[in-house]
Amino acid sequence: MRFIHLYTTLILLLAFMSQSMGQDYKNAVRLSYGTYAGISYKRMFNQEQGVMANIQYGENSFILSGLRVFDTPAFPETSSKWFISYGYGVHLAYRTKIKSRNLFRPFAPAIVHEGDFISPGFDGYFGLEYRFLKYPFTVSADLMPNFEFFGPGYFRVNLNTVSVTAAFVF
């Protein structure tokens, strides 16, 4: 019985993949791994503009974010497979432990704040994406710096949010 479900899913996926060839995609389901592990959904309104919703889980953190994204060819003269993605958005983070450092004492040990912290914030987004032309997949390297309010220090800057992402596009 289990093999019937697997076989049916595989047949539907292959049938869906045959219709989704080409890379001017409208939708993408993305899995990312890096500072945070997450899943996201990207919806493109046209070839250049879209939105993205993220759910990320990391070290003592759970983050929901929404972004406005823009895609542009990275190397238009030499390759049609590389794209630069950039954008901005907002997030809401739930954290149970936050490590912070004093900027005036960079070699001092980190201060650990424990508790339940809910922090809204603003995000930036930058990514370099490679699109496979024959297959409905993309891979990308993403940087998503952000700053948030109402944590233990009332203001926090996160610059280390780097991830590698694989996406199924349709």
Please provide a written account of the structure.
This protein has a single domain, classed as Porin. It has 170 residues and is mainly β. It is built from 1 helix and 10 strands, in the order αββββββββββ.
List keywords for this structure.
single chain; 170 residues; mainly beta; Porin; eight-stranded antiparallel β-barrel; 1 helix; 61% strand
What sequence of helices (H) and strands (E) makes up the elements?
Answer: HEEEEEEEEEE
Strand content: over 45%
The chain-level structural class is: mainly beta
Figure out the total of helices. 1
| Total domain count | 1
- Average pLDDT across residues? 85
Identify the strand order in the major beta sheet.
1-2-3-4-5-6-7-10
Q: What is the rounded distance between the termini?
A: 29 Å
Reading off the top of the CATH hierarchy, the class is best stated as Mainly Beta
Radius of gyration (Å): 19 Å
Uncertain spans: 6-22
CATH architecture: Beta Barrel
Q: Based on Cα principal axes, name the global outline.
A: elongated
For the largest beta-sheet, the strand count, sense and barrel status come to: 8 strands, antiparallel, barrel
Give the helix level as a range of percent: 10-25%
CATH topology: Porin
Total E-strand runs: 10
